[in-house]
User: What shape does this take?
Amino acid sequence: MQAHSLYEGSFSVDTSKKFIPFDPEKDDPKTRPGSLFIHVHPFVIESPNGLIILDTGLGQYTPEGKPVIYSNLEKLGLDPKDVRYVLMSHLHKDHASGMVWENEDRIDLMFPDAEYVIQRGEWEDAYSGKSDSYKTEIFDVIQRSGNLVLVEGNGDLTQEIRYELSGGHTEFHQVFHIKTGGEHYFFGGDEAPAPEQFFRSFAAKYDFDGRKAMKLREEYWKQGQEEGWIFLFYHSTNIAVGRPKLIANGVDYKIVQA
Assistant: This one.
């Protein structure tokens, strides 16, 4: 397997948009009324051309002060210095805070040898400070680094990586197709954040365009079935890396662990 979850933890989030650690085995959800309960899964894909990170999480730290994303990479036997691309679906704080880290008395890039790939419209919206969903103080670090790669619309970043402007969850949200090692990986960010969302038709109020996001999920699921994609689910509470599989009736599909 070339794709791995870099699971950062489980969190509750309410109307304040604060992400509070939540342990399903210890904590009672009734004590957090009006909250959503989500997992956070940045991903890494191993490629012959270097490691590819897909979204960077909340930027959590181990008790020893090491970024959780570093620790998780090292547990897989991977070196954070080998990350060549950081592909950002969008810049909400639960996806983008881990682009940087607090290194003693300064803030550094999490992956200083990588290109950070962001849609230009998303960057401009996030940097504007119009929404508290964005942690704007980290963007100055990215801006000064020289590692920022702004893209527009759809295109091929490399022979392996394709980005597509989707515009459902945020106006300039993007999704990624990564073809490597004989597999087609699909990362839908917050437009396909959990497996169960493929089996329910709904327009979410938290999306920029809920109807568009709903339609996109239908399209991703149909095409993914036909072409055997491996889906990477950022907020899944069960299967984070999964693929479609025909069920016994020979017509319908379910998602199984890849």
